[in-house]
Amino acid sequence: MRSQPMLELLKRMFKKDQLILLGAGVSVTVLMIALYISQPKFLHLLNLKIYDNYLRQYHQPAATKVPVIIDLDERSLSELGQWPWPRYRVALLLKYLTAYGAVAVASDIIFSEPDRTSPEIMKADVKRELHIDMDFTGLPKDLMDYDRLLAHNLRGGPYILGFDFSRKPVAGEHDCRVRPTKVAVLSSPGAPSPHDFLPQGKWMICPIPVLAEAAPESGFITITPDLDSVYRRVPLLYSFEGRFYPSLALATLMQATEQKNIVLKISSVGIESIRFNHIVIPTDGQGQMLINYRGRMGTFEYISASDVLNRKLPPGYLRGRIAFIGTSASGLKDIRATPLDPGFPGAEAHATVVDDILSGQLLSVPDWAPGLEFLGMLAGGLATTFLLMWARASWIILPVLCMGGAMWYGSVFFYREQNYFISPMYSYITLGLTFITLTLIKFWREEIAKRYIHGAFAHYLAPSVISQIMDNPDALSLEGQEKEITIQFSDVRNFTSLSEKLSPTQVTNLLHDYLTPMTRIITEHEGTLDKFIGDAVMAFWNAPLDIENHQEKSLQAALAQQRKLEELNGIFLEKYGFTIAVGIGIHSGPVRVGNMGSADLFDYTLIGDNVNLASRLEGLTKYYGQKLVVSQAIKDACGDGYYFRILDNVRVKGKEAPVTIYTVYTLEEAEARKAELELYERAHQAYVNSDFSTAETLFRELRETGAEPILCDMYMERCAHLKDNPPDCHWDCVFTHKTK
User: Fold this and answer.
1) What is the pLDDT of residues 340-383, one digit of tens each?
2) Which end of the chain is more exposed for a tag (fewer CB within 10 A), N or C?
3) Helix (H, G, I), strand (E, B) or coil at 313
């Protein structure tokens, strides 16, 4: 019965709707984990396409100029005859390639049958089929058998012949003489034989014995496509009858570098890597290497075989390079679909593998990738679940997009900087499926709650109050909470006298034209409209929802209201014949916020001493001739983003503790009024230092510029009084206001 205490704990921690969302989110995440483990075919194919997209977007050009393709192209066949060519011509091609300086020459063509154009074979065929004895006069003995001639050239040269592993039995009798390679095996404790993991060859398609025995190296050209028939991986080693055989690319590198040391690292779960010389080649569990394709066909240099045979290349043109003999001619084309090209020649695929290994730019899926992908699924599913448990779906779209972006760019970072492919697919699917599922559930639950609340309270509360309750049903309480709130009061100056000039209808229209944009600005800056008091507005920030930087957002709203009022006054002057002035006071501090009132009817509002102080600051705007007055708390919270000009140190009516009050300018406005503000600062500092004569002179100088007449007149009057009635030595510069 351990589940019962856990269920009770969850009920205490979460609300009913949150528990439903938690259960659904966990279920979706578990489902995706199960799919990740089972790897269904359609998801596996989708993951391959994501890998292809990475390769298309971020592939790099060839890192070395070592590989080159010797192409049996259309021009070569037109000039020298159709394929297959006589083996003496192949021998000449090999000889010329080494003469041009190639350090290794690999054939992507399997010479699996004797050359039927050899004079010796032609002689036997004519005798057998036509019963005619035919002889060749003047022909050197070495040219009687082209295969032996080619074998003679192969011996001692840097040549590698290709062979293939077949899944089906090979017709006819075949004597395979290709030689295996020696491989050192580095096994972890308990690891099985590497032959249990490597691809297993059943049958071989080999060069004829005379050629296979003569060639210094041989390599298989076998490569298996993925489920979608695209070639992305190449095996570097095959297991056949308990021995190891290298791929054509690996055998070519062994020949070119004269290095034979291959180390196979194996663990209990499969092949970990293959080390050739000093290069560690990461592989999958079957010893297959991801091919880091460099582009479409033609990424590496192609040289027509006819140009080699006709000796058209500059001397030493292939010095230090590795040549792969292949074909691009129609009908002979060895075509393989890759992520970058649906028609990619096999010879260029081998060249790409050589380039990858020599440059060390090897793609891999590291052994820790599944763990990271698993964590990505958990993070995507559970983070989305917890976000939706406490927030609206519309509010978490940006965090979800940020998480998705982080997953994608994190995967791209690993790919581009580390050559690791870490798939974001399952994390993406988990993130999206969790978001959609929980959003639908939340929408369904919220619709039920809205219908209930509307039905229960439609006859008792205003629609705005009902909307607040629907957003947070648990707030339907008289208790409230104590928290830091930013309060804003605004009031139209002399509205009573202005309204006497208008009819009641015009007064209503004027208030509507003024209050509508003002309240819209408040809500756009995440404020909460508390109430209208005639032409006055009370608003606050950081309730009912927590608002980051709520002091600054209230200040931004006040400045925006001032700018909007300048626009409105142009309309009011034309429409009503006058403009209006508005004073705004802002203060921040702890208050009691919640549903206040009686048991039968209540209002979501604020109470507390700080609310009264904010109201007093609004009243002081008229006394100091300012549009905006804020407290020290606002200045402390908003930092250096604005210019705060000190107005006074005051005791407002009803409070004993003094308050420093300011008006606020944007930095651009402060720069434009720099001379005026500097003069004011000097005057005010003289006042604070009890140098009333200097202060009076400076305030008068400022007054004569036409700036701040009300503020300057006030200070000049105060300085004149203080000169005649000097304060005692404990003067604190605090002015006590007797009225609101």
Assistant:
1) 999 898 899 999 999 999 999 999 998 898 899 899 889 888 88
2) N
3) coil
